[in-house]
Amino acid sequence: MVSLETNTTLTAVPGILVGHATLHAHLTGCTVILCPEGATAGVCIRGGAPGSRETDALRPGTLTPSVHGLLLTGGSAFGLDAATGVVRYLVAQGIGFETRHARIPIVPAAVIYDLGLGDAAVRPTAEDGYAAARAATAGPVTEGCIGAGCGATAGKALGMDRAVKSGLGSWAATAADGTRVAALAVVNAFGEVTDPATGRVLAGPRHHTGSGFAPTVEVMQGPATSPHATHMENTTLVVVATDAVLTKEHANALANMADDGIARCVRPAHTQMDGDAVFALATGHRQTSLSLSTLGALAADCVTQAIVRAVQQATAAGGLPAARDLGGVA
Fold first, then answer.
1. Where are the alpha helices (DSSP H) in the chain?
2. What SS3 class is residue 218?
3. How much is the pLDDT for 225?
4. Which residue among 5, 48, 222, 243 sits deepest, i.e. has the most Cβ atoms within 10 Å of its Cβ?
């Protein structure tokens, strides 16, 4: 296991592996989070335009007690094909629920819409999902324009040509009793992204002058937004994980609290053009002394940091500048 001193990403939580498959030439890709020992899972979906698979299995009251992996992917609904490759990989490793006739891995998935930046005809496939799962390790997660974050953008209220390149980020924290909490975020937001610590806008709709950002909510109230705001092309996807023992009900509550981290950074969040979703994983390696409320608060903090890093670690691509090109990285 990589120590938290050298790993401040999602894989700092014991039992979590992360791998990417990136189609750099086509600005898309997928990211796989594996929990080979199984993890109790929950989900919170507040965006108005989600694209997902098997998320209903995570709701309280459903039969599935745990999951074996998650897929975050580009390619919109087409990208859900990549989940088949993740399942195929897990079956080959002997991982999944044992039934009378087959071993069945549970791999929920969620997508971002990145078809407008690269080649819309190229999307992550089952082969890419398999490759990302095979590449998954417990080492620090590579951040930036990689995996599901390869084609991510932010600040699209004035259209794609005024947007800013975004990506994938991650952050982890250790509580006072040693419990670990971490988050991974893919930021493909309609709105601007701010750093709550400073109030500074890191990425947003760029003014036509080339200097500064236009406030998204103001843009939405004017005629300039009408050709763009009707497209369901925006999403922030988040995975939070902890090594605490949680029930499915508590995992869903953790996802609900962690979702606050999106609202702190992305303005506006959870619009009808966003597919915002938060998954929560509990690997059960530790009997924590922390309350669920404390875990949720820590998870929301990690989400905030992961979103900020997703923007700050991104690099220019597809003709769009990144925050680092616009003074958004200190």
1. 82-92, 126-134, 216-220, 248-258, 260-265, 292-312
2. helix
3. 47
4. 243
